[in-house]
Amino acid sequence: MKSKRKEHRKHARHRLDCPVTLFSPHQEFPVTSDISNVSDGGLYVRVPASAAQGMGSKVAVSFCVPRRNRLPEVVAARADVLRRVTDGRDDNCGLALRFRQPLALNL
Fold first, then answer.
1. In CATH, what number does 19-99 get?
2. pLDDT for 14-52, tens place per residue?
């Protein structure tokens, strides 16, 4: 039997099919991947496990949000790494990131 967990998120998550670049002061080069989901409060992304291990707990992110009838909007934010998730399916690691300041993405 599954237990019902109370939803504790402040911001609704949305699928967003776009790349994201993560910058860490602990790595020489940025890491680029695809966003799994995003909200005004943060995002979830899968990156190579080797990149996740060296990333540290604070990152900067950059991605584009598509806008109807307008050019995409470039978003840049600082985020904290809340959780690293490995599931053994592949050599990737999921990162749950919380933006330091909530964004107004209007998705």
1. 2.40.10
2. 898 899 999 999 888 999 999 999 999 999 999 999 888
Q: Which residue has the tokens 């399916």?
A: 89
Instruction: Return the exposure string of 21-45: e unless at least 16 CB atoms fall within 10 Å of the residue's CB, then b.
Output: ebbbeeeeeebebebbebbbbbbbb
Rounded to whole angstroms, how far apart are CA atoms 40 and 34?
A: 17
Q: Where are the domains of the chain?
A: 19-99
- For every residue of the chain, which 3-state class applies, written as one string? CCCCCCCCCCCCCECCCCEEEEECCCCCCCEEEEEEEECCCEEEEEEEHHHHHCCCCEEEEEEEECCCCCCCEEEEEEEEEEEEECCCCCCEEEEEEEECCCCCCCC
